[in-house]
Amino acid sequence: xxxxxxxxxxxxxxxxxxxxxxxxxxxxxxxxxxxxxxxxxxxxxxxxxxxxxxxxxxxxxxxxxxxxxxxxxxxxxxxxxxxxxxxxxxxxxxxxxxxxxxxxxxxxxxxxxxxxxxxxxxx
Length: 123
Prior knowledge:
- By secondary structure, this protein is an alpha/beta fold.
- It has a single domain (3-122), classed as Response regulator (Rossmann fold, 3-Layer(aba) Sandwich), CATH 3.40.50.
- Helices cover 44% and strands 20% of the residues.
- It contains five helices and five strands; from the N terminus they run βαβαβαβαβα.
- The protein has a five-stranded parallel sheet, with helices on both faces.
- Helix 2 runs parallel beside helix 3 (60-68).
- The protein is globular.
């Protein structure tokens, strides 16, 4: 079973994402902010990460930068979630090293498809 780490500072959003992915057959680990995400990542074997871009203590970009400093994590699938869906945002997120970009409110069918696609691609 693949494990997905969800880092989202809003409780309701984090819980909904966890329910959707658990029901899709994934093991889910959650984090309340970027610092917690790095701690959870270190404590678990993670196959894919979903990062809210705007989080307290350490944002999604900061988490991604730290993950990408480890060569073994260069190909780790990381999805960016953001409510600020402006023209050009997707390009800047992908250029920063994220594998995919999903805007909020999250389309759960799209999320499930993208998680499955990225995990299949990783194998």
